[in-house]
Amino acid sequence: MLALISATLAKLAQEIALLQRTEIGELEEGYAPGRGGSSTMPQKRNPITCEAIIGASRVVRQMVPAMLDAMLHDNERATGPWHVEWLSLPETAILTHGIVVQTGRLLDGLVVRPERMGANLKLTRGLISSEAVMMALAPALGRQRAHDVVYDASMRAIERGTLLVDELLAEPEVTTHLERAAIERILDPSSYVGLAGQFVDRVLGRAG
After folding, report:
1. φ/ψ (deg, to 5) at 26
2. Is there a single domain that holds both residue 186 and residue 137?
3. Which of 80, 114, 148 is at the close of a domain?
4. Distance CA 119, CA 23 (A)
5. How many domains does the chain have?
6. What pLDDT score was predicted for residue 36?
């Protein structure tokens, strides 16, 4: 259980660290002067809390094989397995506690940049929402044909560096059923989030 908890929190920390990269910049650990800097590169803000969580979690997960091995003992466990437990259990508990504490601090100070999220979504020029267009066309064209039409338009958009909406408008099978305004609305990523909002509200409700 401790390994599962530590791995879950490490996954969260890893995602934050990856999204803090300069070229993405959607999230960032809370900053304080002198924190997370580099001895050689003054401009850096390293995700040091994320790194600590990820590193400690790796150690915790390595304790799992040791504890499983300690299950194989003789009679009254006189030949060593319990010594493995003495080493593994305390360290696992201490490290997992540290991971939980550090994750709380990480989330309390987390910087979220929705404007960068929006900008990054636009990098694909609409391609990220191609599935939404396919599903909108499926009732009229059939799912497979809708897939093929949107696929062809998407490949042209990639090769030409054009907007997906423009390539879709060049397809008569699309314009017969969808106008530009409708396509642009469908291609808006915020209109295709499914039940994500409800799930977030549910989790936050339980946490509260």
Report:
1. -85, -30
2. yes
3. 114
4. 11
5. 2
6. 66
